[in-house]
Design brief:
alpha+beta, Endonuclease Iii, domain 2, Endonuclease III, domain 1, 3 domains, 5-stranded antiparallel beta sheet, Endouclease-III_FeS-bd_BS, DNA repair
Length: 344
Amino acid sequence: MNKGIYLIIAFLSENINLKTKSKVFPLKKGYYYYCGSAINGLAARIKRHLKKNKEKKHWHIDFLLEKAEIILINPYIVGDNSLEHILADILKEDLVSIKGFGCGDCKCESHLFYSKKLVAKPYLKILFQKHIEKVVEILLDLYRGKETPVEKFKTPWELLVSCIISLRTKDEVTAVSAERLFKEAPTPYHLMKLSPEKIGELIYPAGFYKTKGKNLQKVAEIIVKEYDGKVPDNKEDLLKLPNVGIKTANLVLANGFGHYEVCVDTHVHRISNRLGFIKTKTPEESEKVLKNILPKKYIREYNGLLVKHGQNICKPIRPLCDRCPLTKLCMFYLKNEDSKTKKS
């Protein structure tokens, strides 16, 4: 893939007045951090920067790299070059801006930053977090006001029951079935008193309604007798309940209790891999990795947004990329575009 941004770290061994085509920059001895982008030809751009004694110098960084020693070049593959400006803002927080350097075509103060000593900070990892945040914010805008039928359930009890009903059942059916059940039995105490057959009737036509009726009655009984009528707020106890798996437990903990847990279904697993956030083979693997990389402020929204996106646009087969606002931030799309370019 040939689109992206990059970070260069270079060392200048002495104080100099750096003359470019348009300006002179007084630079001190020390370490310089430069962020750039290449809409096409990222590999060629990096190769050019590594070359000494260039016949033609186009950019400010060309002049600096004739004098400084490159310590590191890190590429970051992405189709949205606005992340270059986000990286500049990240660098600006720790380092000294060399005002006016490399930013003639944007509103940034600078794309070059100075430090007397080498700063060992994972700047691209921080950028990756900002990348994820940008994706979530785009999806929040896209699906604002488009609540799915099951998103009306907010309490731990409502979430637990609706999740159990939802197995092999469409959201629309789950929502109607759960609402009907909650009218008859709004709490574990009420549900415990109903027979499994009655519960099954109330949640029909949910898939496996008879089995779910038995399990829901058992769940209510356990919660009343062992947890004083309150849904457990920890994964270990939730997983002891009948018909409760890791996905349901994480959804209840994240959305019901505000815990830092990630609910990973097939949509979340598939889209997270397509975006390039993770590289995993199973939802279980995805959960472990996503828990370590997702920004905490968006942990609760992540599942719901990706489920909506998976149902409407990023489908398992033939995703509707022409309708997707994430294409410039998506590795799956960038790879496909590269393949088309090579074939043509």
